[in-house]
Design a protein that fits this description.
There is one protein chain. The chain is α+β, with helices and mostly antiparallel strands. It folds into four domains: about 1-175, no CATH class; about 185-405, P-loop containing nucleotide triphosphate hydrolases (Rossmann fold), CATH 3.40.50.300; about 415-505, Beta Barrel (Elongation Factor Tu (Ef-tu), domain 3); about 515-614, Elongation Factor Tu (Ef-tu), domain 3. It contains 14 helices and 28 strands. The protein has an eight-stranded mixed sheet with strand order 7-6-8-5-9-10-12-11, sandwiched between helices. A six-stranded antiparallel beta barrel has the order 13-14-20-17-16-21. The chain has a six-stranded antiparallel beta barrel with strand order 22-25-24-23-26-27. A hairpin with a 5-residue loop joins β6 (about 235-240) and β7 (about 250). α12 packs across α13. The radius of gyration is 25 Å and the shape is globular. The protein starts with a helix and ends with a strand. The relative contact order is 0.09. Keywords: GTP-binding, Nucleotide-binding. Its main location: cytoplasm. It is found in: Cytoplasm. GO terms for molecular function: GTP binding; GTPase activity; translation elongation factor activity.
Length: about 625
Amino acid sequence: MESFFDLFGPTTTGAVSDSDTDTRNGNGEEDSTFGDLGGHGHLLQQHASCNSSPSEDADCSELILKGIDFNRGFLPPEPQLGNIEYKLKLINPSKQRFEHLVTQMKWRLREGNGEAIYEIGVSDSGHLHGLSDADMSVSLHTLNQMARKLDASTSVLRRKSLADHRSVVEVLVRKIPDDQHNIEVRVAVLGAADAGKSTLLGVLTQGEFDNGRGRARLNMFRHMHEIQTGRTSCISHETLGFDAQGSVINYKYNEMMTAEEISDRSTKLVTFMDLAGHRRYLKTTVQALSGYCPHHALIVISAGNISTMTREHLAIVHALDISFSIIVTKTDLAPPEPVLFELKNLLTSIGYRKIPYLISNEDDVLNANAHQSVEQIVPIFCVSNVTGAGLDLLIQYLYVLSPGISNAEKERLEQEAIEFQIDEIFRVAEVGLVAGGLLCKGVLTENSQVKVGPLQDGSFFSVVVQTIHRNKAPCRVVRAGQSASLSFNTNEPLPALRSGMVILPDYESNEIACGSLFFQAQVSVLFHATRIYKGFQTTVHIGSIRQTAIIEGIMGAGETGIGTNQTASVLFRFLRHPEYVRPGMRILFREGTSKGIGKVTQVFPLNKTHPVAT
């Protein structure tokens, strides 16, 4: 695949060593990350100007990913914000200096939601000074002491050798937040039918390669018809854990391993959502993406071709602003080059404007992860579920993948009133009705008095949260951004619960607990064959809500309607029953090949005289 390196900005095959490092400047300050592209607006032009030979493409890759050349001996300046810290050296600090360093690490961990990257041997200006083996050993020992002070763990991600027997080292520092058992990342897995999604998850979570006939995917299926057809029809959840040293914890860890034990033993937990790939179940797939709010998405593509369904999934993920990576499977059966060429043209097109990046070694993994959220990089992995080729790089990527939410944003959400979106309803023996979903805002505890709804008339009813489970294990509290399952205690029979309902705080002054049939949204039409007029029926997705709605009015459009790439303020009416909608919520609507996105600007609650607007 080296002949395609010039298409994807690959990393060096020989010029880059196994690790990267950070150094200090002449003022003794520390420098920042490997993953700063420096805001280059000419990255694609830089890439296009590079020669096509593998060695020259490798150097070009360094320019694309870092905006620097390691041979020149510097990195971008250390960022003031974020979870990346440059340290020239950490040799025998005074007690006062040590306490300052610990405080600094604590702040970086908060910025990274429990994860921080330290570059040892790099100055604040980004110059790669490097350290001798003896000084590096002492510096790493000091870093470990700092981490232990905060009950955090350290693991070396990579090391780069410099001249004069010096080196720089990149270290991951991880501390599980005090209010969590582990760091959780939700990952949605999408792709066309027969792309190998369930097989890939089976290999990752079971720890055994596929036999080429789909054996690995059997544990992913929930229904007999899925086993018989080999096609997923509903949402399936699986977990992959990592300990503090980055070792995989899955069902192969020991013979009696359960999902609860994987969660207990892991410092980081990746929760996969295996979504249906057949067009018949597209509404279920879109509902999962909208309701579960995944931190990241994996788009699985067979090495044979990019199907129409895959393009649909890419468009939906892009419209919902979910970061994604691409996994090219079945490379043992077909060469991936034709698909890689198609991906390059698709991702760099006007609709996406992404930078495809082919992952070929561990340096690529770390670089792509560092730049993905800032510079629109799309990592591409070529794997085989039969031979295991490329799976080690994918696992390394999942290990360093972060939730992508800042600590400040997390704290802001936790301080708001609770809002729990119900995605799934099921019954458990001796427990009764259980609601599964995502807590979007606030902090929910056991024995909390809450309201659930809306009912057919738009009202809510009061219940008490009896028990809470996360990752199949009981817990006492769930915080904003976490998924959970809840059981209820009520003196009266529970009315029929459904997906799309919400749980809100129960207090007399809570006037927001009311359903709405009408709402207004500012929308953009992504595609429609002709034009959209008043009376158009479409399926609307708002969080966990999935319901048919009718367009009752298009402001300013008159009789001309709106077409592709046009924006307008649209009045919607739910066709069946009221839903809880609030201003600011993201909306996605689709009908056949037509699709559009937008934000709710105004709602009209039932039994209320005044609308609620932004």
